[in-house]
Amino acid sequence: MSHTMKTPVLRMAGIMLLLCAVFCATAPVMAEETTLSISGSTTVLPIASACAEAFMDAHPDVDVQVSGGGSGAGIKAIGEGVVNLAMASRELKDEEKTKYPNLQTVAVAKDGIAVIVNPENAVEALTLKQIKDIYTGTITGWQDVGGETAKIEIVGRDSASGTREFFFEKVLNKEDFTKFMLEKNSNGAVQQYVSQTPTAIGYVGMGFEDGVKVVEIKGDDGKNSKPSVETVKSGAYPLSRELYFVTAGEPEGLAKEFLDFVLSAEGQKIVEEQGFVSI
Questions:
Q1: DSSP SS3 for 160
Q2: How is 175-241 classified by DSSP, letter by letter?
Q3: 244: which residues sit within 8 A by CB, 6+ positions away?
Q4: What's the pLDDT tens digit per position in 108-140?
Q5: Total-model pTM
Q6: CA torsion 130→134→138→139, rounded to 10°?
Q7: Are 93 and 174 in contact (CB under 8 A)?
Q8: Kind and range of the H or E element at 155?
């Protein structure tokens, strides 16, 4: 082969090697940046799912995958690098901060935990003390809190739930739940069970109130309150809290874009449409 023929061939080979190197370097980034995985709190799940749909409508090349499992499971998943974002309905625990020191929380909504009963139940309001006594097993009959004579069927969440953790701290003052509590793995499962069981009581995020009756909380001042936009924003409702996304370090790339969307005016409108309170 002549020198004049070798030069174009060598040049072309060099270009092909360069293109290959560029593709190989960018391919993993492209794959990472077109898929976003989110898991955790079933309270935050409706917000994340609805925002994911809107986000994917605006970014047709992006796939946002959302699943539940509970706050604890989501925090473990983000801490171990299994997902890009986690959902949590509580703050990080001290042991989680120690095990995963780079985790950060971003508040995306406000919520009020609703104590719910079946619509057939005559009880309209309870004190926090009465709710505590029901969930610790001290009160076992509806007749003891102004209802009809019937055994109370107590429904709660499993150990991975951030809602359970919040309820354990704020209502039970860290006393043990009764061993007779029926544990469910999601807000939706608690809501469904209570809606179908006349003697049941449960607790859920305020976005899960369809088909059930929300019990008013009697305050020490004699006033009753329910979770609503007004009472949660003002803090007047005693079981108000914030809902979070959890990131591994400072959010960047697709995770940051999604978080920015959730916190935008459009995203916060979706928060309200799902029955929760905007930041």
A1: coil
A2: PPPPTTPEEESSHHHHHHHHHH-TTEEEEE-TT--TTSEEPEEEPTTS-EE---HHHHHHT-STTEE
A3: 44, 87, 88, 89, 90, 91, 105, 106, 107, 108
A4: 999 999 999 999 999 999 999 999 999 999 999
A5: 0.80
A6: 80
A7: no
A8: strand 153-157
